[in-house]
TrEMBL record:
Protein name in UniProt: RNA demethylase ALKBH9B isoform X2
InterPro entries: AlkB-like_sf, ALKBH9B/ALKBH10B-like
Organism of derivation: Raphanus sativus (Radish)
Gene Ontology molecular functions: demethylase activity; mRNA binding
Family: Belongs to the alkB family.
TM annotation in the entry: none
BP GO terms, sorted: mRNA catabolic process
Length: 249
């Protein structure tokens, strides 16, 4: 399986009609009335071409670190793609995630977590997996005999765009994802993504800029923050970070 993450913070935007979830992102943008290119009388196809041309891509990340006695580029395979979603599309996506968060609070979603301390709320779609070995001794990774909610329709639309706009390869289309919802001060602990999942991973960030810290010497401080690391990658709003693989993160 391949996986993606959608990261958001707790916030609310204008309401989204439930029946618009099955629309394409372009349909939703038109419905919101905030399509900046529409005033120029461009067709939908022309607007999409302009959007794709405006996407910024960076693939030449380099940070050398000694790992197991060998100097390696710990950022090998990292790509950053920005300006994938318009402001109107971001509104639609975040509102949909907020609705999913509310369903999770009501117990209407099968796989949702709210950890204690400086963590984040998480909702799994497409497949069920453990982040770490459970109290019952079940190892981290995909739980193949557990049921979980399927990918929401809007997430499938997002994935199709990421493939069509050459963020993700057509040979490895994600069929599952985890939604991480961060409040101010929340973070995800240092980890290496489980190898039950095929690469690449794709992280999409909304609402506020955040950073991903890479390195093999990350340490947990008494106040719950993490120190160390060799490279801090800022993730702008609506940016997509693709990771083929990384030695440390």
């Amino acid at each position: 399986m391949s996986a993606s993450q959608i990261k958001v913070a707790s916030h609310r935007f204008c309401s989204l009609e439930q029946d618009s979830v099955d629309m394409t992102l372009e349909d939703q943008e038109d419905a919101c009335g905030d399509a900046s290119l529409e005033k120029h009388n461009f067709s939908r196809g022309q607007r999409e071409i302009i959007q794709v041309m405006n996407v910024k891509r960076k693939r030449d990340f380099l940070c050398l670190e000694k790992v197991n006695g060998e100097m390696v580029n710990i950022l090998e395979g990292i790509e950053l793609h920005t300006d994938i979603f318009s402001a109107a599309e971001q509104q639609m996506i975040v509102e949909n995630v907020c609705e999913l968060q509310e369903k999770a609070r009501k117990g209407e979603i099968k796989r949702a977590f709210t950890p204690k301390g400086k963590g984040r709320s998480a909702i799994q779609f497409g497949c069920c997996f453990n982040y770490r070995t459970s109290k019952d001794g079940i190892p981290a990774g995909i739980l193949r005999h557990e049921t979980v909610d399927p990918l929401p329709s809007l997430f499938k639309v997002i994935i199709r765009r990421l493939v069509k706009w050459h963020v993700l390869p057509p040979t490895c289309v994600p069929d599952c994802c985890v939604v991480n919802i961060y409040d101010e001060g929340d973070c995800i602990p240092p980890h290496v993504d489980n190898h039950d999942f095929l690469r690449p991973f794709c992280t999409v960030s909304f609402l506020s800029e955040c950073s991903i810290l890479f390195g093999s010497n990350l340490k947990l401080e008494e106040n719950g923050d993490y120190s160390g690391g060799s490279y801090l990658l800022p993730l702008p709003i609506s940016a997509c970070a693709k990771r083929e693989w990384s030695k440390c993160s």
